[in-house]
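Please fill in the sequence for the structure shown.

STRUCTURE ENCODING:
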């Protein structure tokens, strides 16, 4: 009976983005989409998948991040010139990574955002400040009125990444942050008051960036992310204990 139970695994529920990536994978593997072929427009894909364009953008962004798609602002998005075998393996890893590496994602986000906020404090423009302030105010307004402010939370952090003026760092944060914030909020990992607590964290981060105080910016971001960072460290510690008992 014990071996039977051990062979039963949890049912994996695919996210809309995973399903889009999976279907694009099948189109590539089957040869319907070949290296160099252009993808249909976002609007067309949104209609065909029956999903919002934000899901389409997120899927395309992830595939771009891994070099499987290339986007030209003037002409559209194209399948990269990689072999079918390479594309198959990388896409499988992308979907698996989304599900199995939550603690690793938190750890990566923590370190990426600490570096991003320091660069943002150094390099931000007045336009960046305006964008950050708008995102901060939109987030607070929705939280205070009891609305879902998940997207506004994401936007605030994405605006910080944009203020770094480092396109690689911005892309990495764009890849990691949306999934994490959605999972954290939907799973209530940090409790029900997390959104209200985030308001003060956002204000401290904004003020440090406004005054170009790199040290305070890093401290404010570390404080803002501390609770989820501690959860990540506890998760790694638990996994290490499990691994040691299995040796």
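FILLED IN BY: designer on duty
SEQUENCE:
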């Amino acid at each position: 009976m014990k071996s039977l139970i051990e062979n039963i695994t949890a049912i994996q529920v695919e996210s809309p983005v995973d399903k889009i990536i999976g279907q694009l994978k099948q189109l590539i593997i089957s040869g319907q989409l070949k290296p160099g072929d252009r993808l249909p427009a976002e609007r067309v894909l949104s209609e065909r998948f029956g999903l919002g364009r934000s899901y389409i953008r997120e899927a395309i962004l992830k595939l771009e991040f891994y070099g499987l798609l290339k986007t030209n602002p003037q002409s559209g998005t194209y399948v990269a010139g990689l072999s079918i075998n390479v594309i198959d393996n990388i896409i499988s890893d992308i979907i698996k990574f989304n599900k199995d590496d939550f603690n690793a994602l938190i750890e990566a986000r923590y370190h990426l955002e600490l570096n991003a906020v320091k660069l943002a404090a150094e390099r931000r423009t007045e336009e960046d400040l305006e964008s950050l302030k708008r995102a901060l105010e939109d987030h607070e307004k929705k939280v205070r009125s009891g609305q879902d402010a998940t997207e506004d939370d994401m936007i605030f952090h994405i605006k910080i990444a944009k203020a770094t003026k480092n396109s690689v760092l911005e892309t990495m944060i764009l890849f990691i942050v949306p999934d994490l914030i959605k999972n954290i909020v939907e799973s209530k990992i940090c409790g029900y008051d997390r959104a209200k607590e985030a308001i003060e964290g956002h204000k401290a981060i904004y003020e440090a960036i406004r005054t170009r105080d790199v040290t305070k910016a890093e401290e404010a971001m570390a404080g803002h992310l501390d609770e989820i960072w501690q959860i990540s460290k506890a998760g790694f510690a638990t996994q290490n204990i499990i691994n040691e008992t299995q040796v």
